[in-house]
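User: My collaborator and I are trying to settle a disagreement about how two of our proteins should look. Neither of us wants to argue from intuition anymore, so we agreed to look at predicted structures for both before our next call. Could you fold the first one, then the second, and keep them clearly separated?

Assistant: That sounds like a sensible way to settle it. I'll keep them separate. The first protein:
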Amino acid sequence: MRILLVDSDHTASASLIQILRTNGLAVDHTASGREALEIMRHYQYDAVIIELTLDDIEGYTVIRDARLARISTPILVLTNLSRPQAKIKAFALGADDYLTRPFDTAELIARLQAILRRSHGLSAAQIVVGPLMIDLNAKQALVNGDPVHLTGKEYAILELLALRRGSVLTKDAFLNHLYGGIDEPEMKIIDVFICKLRRKLQQKGAGSLVTTVWGRGYILREEPVMTKATPHQAMSSLSA
C-alpha cells in the first residue's frame, strides 16, 4: 500500500513515516497542501493521510478540492483537532475517516486497511483469486494454503494486481506504486519482477494467473489461463 502523507510538522511527519514504513507501507510526504493536490492529480495512491492545520492552505481545502476534481483516493484525517465540529466538517467535505492525536499505532493501521478494503469493495482482509489467497493484513500470499515466499516488491506488485484484478495495469502504474516517482529504475525492471512472481506462483500450482496484455501491461485474471494442448498431447489424452 502506498500512502501520501500531508503534514507541515516535520518532526511529527518523520515519526509517522517511520511507523508506517515499519508496518510495510510505502510513504511519500509533502508539507504543502497545494503540492498535495498536484501530486494527487498525477499519481495514484491507496490512501492519503492529512493534517488539517497546514502551513499554506487548510487540510479542509485539500479535501474539498480533491473531491471537486473527482479524485476518489481515500482520505484519512490525522490531526490535533478533536472538537466535533472539525470532524463533521471533514466528513462533509469528503474525508473517509478521522483520527485524533495522540493515536494508537495499531488503530491507525487498522483504519487504513479498512478504508482500503472499502474503496475496493472488499468486506474482509483477504482477496481470493482461484487458488490464490492474499492476506492484506499479514501481507502474505498463499496458493492452496501454502505460503508463497515473495520479496517486498513482488508482494507489492501482486497486491496491486489483486486489488485491481480484471484490469490491465501498465508498467508506469507499477513504477509509480513501487517508487512513487522517486529514483525510479528503468521500466524493464517491472518485467523482471513479473517474471519472478509468475515463476513462484506457478511453482506453487497457481497456473498463469498473471498474464500479459501485449502493448498494454499485465492483468490478474480470475482464473488461470490454460495453454492449448498440442495435437500429440490431445491424441495421448484420448488414448489414455
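The second protein, kept apart from the first:
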Amino acid sequence: MTTETLKVQGMSCAHCVQAVEGSVGELKGVSDVTVHLEKGTVDVAYDRDVTSHEDIVEAIDDQGYDVEQ
C-alpha cells in the first residue's frame, strides 16, 4: 500500500471535498482518500499494482482542480 499527499489548488468548500473524495475514492485500488481543505492537500492510500499516481491526478483534474507536480 502506498500513501501520498498531493497539493491541490482550487478547493474551497464542502462540495470540493465531496467531489474530490468521491472521484478518487471510486478508483480501483484506492483504500482511503481524505481532503484537508484548510491545507489544500489530499491524502490518498492506494495499491500501485491496481492504480497509479497519474490516475489519481487525472481524477482530481477531471473535477476541475489542479494538482501541483
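Some points you might bring to the call about the second protein. The longest helix spans residues 14-25. The first strand starts at residue 2 and ends at 9.
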